[in-house]
From TrEMBL:
It comes from the Eukaryota. It catalyses: L-arginine + H2O = urea + L-ornithine. The gene is ARG1. Its EC number is 3.5.3.1. Pathway: Nitrogen metabolism; urea cycle; L-ornithine and urea from L-arginine: step 1/1. One of its GO terms (biological process) is arginine metabolic process. Mn(2+) binds at H157, D181, H183, D185, D266, D268. GO terms for molecular function: arginase activity; metal ion binding. This is arginase.
Amino acid sequence: MKNIGKMGIHYLQRLNAANVPKDLIEKGQNRVIEASLTLIRERAMLKGELLRALGGVKASSSLLGVPLGHNSSFLQGPAFAPPRIREAIWCGSTNSTTEEGKDLNDPRVLTDVGDVPIQELRDCGVDDDRLMGIISESVKLVMEQDPLRPLVLGGDHSISFPVVRAVSEKLGGPVDILHLDAHPDIYDAFEGNKYSHASSFARIMEGGYARRLLQVGIRSINKEGRDQGKRFGVEQYEMQTFSKDRHLLENLKLGEGVKGVYISVDLDCLDPAFAPGVSHIEPGGLSFRDVLNILQNVKGEVVAGDVVEFNPQRDTVDGMTAMVAAKLVRELTAKISK
Ligand SMILES: [Mn+2]
């Protein structure tokens, strides 16, 4: 189970080793990359055209799945999360309205452009440098279709780097990031991997894609995490002082003077009692209502977001964490759409 994310059929990599001409491989990979982007481009265009024809929509959430789990340092199950989250959103156990009354069945509120075919690209030997570029490009294709705004389903947390990079580049400046997580994910590199899910916010800050980075729910942090936080001017709110910080965190005003607000939710920000289906179980976390209180009360223009690190291989048999992820997606949708 542990190695499932590494079990792509690295057939072309083997061919490479057998002295197959390099340009033959590269040309084939480029065709697969173009086909991958084409499907997302066309689906985003169709949804954008639909919303523009309907009219009266300023911003609308559009789901983009990024089923990538191989940059996890421990388990790789988040590669399987996007279809499980969609299934939970639409399972019918609850009605289709968000808490404030937006109807998810209305395409003006929520659309879906599908998944970046991460496993298919890796099967063709596409490396992480290019994979991160393809994720960024896919996010930009969604943003090109006004009024769509990307709401990304991970995947492990490594995907937040290419997603935030794309959002910032497309909008032409930094955003403010609200990052809910047990971990700061700000190692310079983890086990030698600069794309590690534990390093995504170091890449984001180095790139200048965020002005403010607020990390909330932190309870697994070492000296490097704190040093890196200071180095990049990160506002780290640790769980040990949450009762003191609660009022501030439930009344955040972000995004003024920058291009907007990006919200990144790692499911392990929640106490494992609420969300057991995560790779890194870290007791002492936020309740689900704590998270909703923070998210629902954020003042600012939410331009994009992600929900990451759901590991279906660790979930309860009745899929409780999938429902938790789904409700977060629903409420973030309500926050984005207008
Ligand atoms: Mn985490």
